[in-house]
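stuck on this one:
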Amino acid sequence: MTMIKWSDVKHGTCSLALAVALVALPQAAHAQQGGNGAQGGGQSGGQGGGSASVPANRRSVVVPYLEVGQVLSADLKNGGDLLTYSLAAVGVDAAVQTSRVEAQVSVRYERRFSWNDDIGDQDAISGIARANVQIIPNALSIEAGALGIRSRIDNRGAAPSNLIGGSDNVTQIYSVYAGPTLATNVGGVEVNGLYRIGYTKVEADAVALPAGARPLDLFDDSVNHAASLAIGQQPGGFLPVGWSISGGYYREDASQLDQRFEDKIVRADVTVPVSATLAVVGGVGYEDIEISERDAVRDAAGNPVVGNDGRLVTDRNSPRLLSYDQDGLIWDVGVLWRPSRRTSLEARVGRRYDSTTYYGSFTYTPNQRLAANLAVYDLVSGFGSRLNDNVAGLPTQFDATRNPLSGDLNSCFFSGGGGNCLNDTLQSVASSAFRTRGVTGQISLTSGSWQHGFGAGYSRRRFFAAENGALAGFDQTIDEIWFASFNTSKQLDARSSLTGTVYGTYLENGPGQALNGGGSDVLGIGANAAYGRNFTNRFTGTLALGLDYFDPQGFESSLVASALLALRYSFQ
């Protein structure tokens, strides 16, 4: 049974026509991704340890742990002040795989005890979880996911990557979603549907701004709903061509200015096989997107009022103000090439969002050791829904690696099916909806005792705000991000392992930002390495070193050297 996700209907990255096309190519039966197991099993303890993976002879692994450690950090470029703190952490890495349940969890709570009077004690929570439970095998399932991560607040400020000590411009983010998915066959017609509810929360409080800077468009929380239904058939059924009819409804309500994003879409698609491995696909439909907000409370001078948390105070009596209103005909055409079970390419061009749009995907999994995927996307979304979509795009078995010095999750996740990176979603936590266009790709490779993961991409976002609202200066502003990350690990012997990460990001604030408070372009690069040693089956140690550089225009650049020594006890 071929499955379809809500994002396939909403974002047009594929449709039921693509699902039908995969079935239509007789030499290329659709292979379900995400069940190849997690990588990173060669890592040993410490903060750099990867997620639990399921060995071939076991169906579940649950590893709770306690950890203590000591961290030293110094900014080599700005006086070399030494930051020292101790840490105590509790966490669990778990993976479950049975005939009805697939799930993976990596969650960690860390308490940091500073030795510096000017930096207080801190708490840090990070985690990622994905699960699929088959209620009726091959027909009805429940999917769920959750993410806890720290990220950048404002795109005008610093963008530290090694989040140790008292990092500025950093906030805690939580996101969770759940819902049923239906995939069945009725009288030879495939029926696919789903409903999903999600919630996203950003903890950030007020950020100090330069005099005259525009107010922050600072996300607080949002609730989003998604529902979709699709019916279709492969070629040779009722018709000589594959066909599908699909529709969906999406809504996100954000608390900042009571912002609302609403998307309704219906479309029909056809698949015309050209050969055993090639098909022409196309679709046409109607879409109605409306984004609106309320005004802020105004003071006597007419200026928007900002609350103690740094967010605008919403005027609940204000009428709704439109920031984006687009409806009309949408269409796209393209090709689907599936030369084997392990290779698939889709490319489309069409008309959507009142402009030309391009999107597509490529996957290559020649064997269990190598997986690669590439996606080109173009969509209108909000911060909460985009983050939910990224988490939902992860398989239920993946590798969640961590920065060995801070314990935070790395932003790229890898699996036997390729992977997914969150960098484009987390480049800032603005509450306004946006149009984002970009490309992202991931490669995972196992070579002997080495395991590698590489992710890279580019994203461009244009924000929408009401012309006569409190965030009018934010309308049509642009930010862009280029990013790349390489993770590697090696099992040195039965008791020791080596892990390492090299990364680079560049955030550019384009037209509009300089006119509204001044955006700063930010370069960040760095590397870290960790050596892990199992002293016993339960007691492990980690020694880690790192060097991180970030340079925001208009602010002081930093070159930070860090070191960690940690001991972990695992209850397994």
About this structure: The helical segments are 6-11, 16-24, 383-392. Residues 144 and 178 are 4 Å apart (CA to CA). The radius of gyration is 24 Å.
